[in-house]
Amino acid sequence: MSPNPGHLLDLPPLTAGAFAATERRVAALLRTANDVVITQGEALLPLEGAIRGAARPGSTALNVVTGPYGETFGGWLRDAGAKVVELEVPFDRAVTAEQVGEALERDPEIGLVSLVHAEAATGTTNPVAGIAAVVRAQGALLMLDAVASVAAEPLLTDEWGVDLCVIGGQKAMAGPAGVSAVAVSERAWRRFAENPAAPRRSYLSLLDWKERWIDAGRRVLPHAPAQLEMLALDACLDRIEAEGLDAVIGRHRAAAAQTREGALDLGLTPYVVEAADAAPVATTVRTPAGMHAGELAAAALAVDPGLPLSPGGGALAADMLRVNHYGTAADPAVVDRTLATLSAALRR
Questions:
Q1: Which of 104, 107, 150, 184 is the most exposed place for a label (fewest CB within 10 A)?
Q2: Does the pTM of the predicted model rise above 0.85?
Q3: What domain range is 27 assigned to?
Q4: CB 173 within 8 A of CB 249
């Protein structure tokens, strides 16, 4: 789908067949045979929908907190009536499968685990394959926020046994922010159907998509799709397929290694302690003593406003600087330009 940009306000309706074809392309990207639902909004929509569908009142959930999004998930789980067991890990390192396994052993009633794959806000990435194995051994569902990791690192939804895998297009996929997707396993669909509090007849309802779209044979869309966002999603899938997913992942890995090495050369201390825990989408560093991250970022951006550079958020705003290298910024020339401008800002 590649219409003339001059006619973007006068598009023919998106057909059910075209919508279903894009779902299949997303499923291939996620390496899954599970149902894929493309949701018409930013990825917080399917993330909250997945949690509210899977967490029934009185159930117990393990929420792994390795960054700001994990904190958000805990609030949603409590709102859904679940007892929440929080496994909090310092934001400068990844959680381990052993830590998750110990938490599951301490509370065998846990039926749902929520986890972020790559924390772009802190620059960490979590070892999903090992974690998913211990979650499956417990019999619990695993909900994975893969918004930042998709197309930046391997994401083997079925091989790992991820029950709810949520993605967005705006980071490593270099696509739109206004459309997202979730792959749903049969176990997760059963959990939703058994949950009397799961959203129904609601914008948060994944069950509505199951009943009105998937079970109905994908013949009639349940509502008018976001046409421009779907076109943009198809376009970014075209680019990924043309470059090759392995090449896209390799490009992100190379950008991460280049950025971390360059930061060390500048005398900056990586925020993420172990290089193996560092995310391929963003490198975070600690600013020198007495230097505010916001002021340092502002000095660099004053020279080059297009740099993928920002201070940390919340409590990290003063002491952490983040260099994003996802999507089109996962490029050696962009990394070089960012490091050179940052070097000049540090000297000033």
A1: 107
A2: yes
A3: 5-241
A4: no
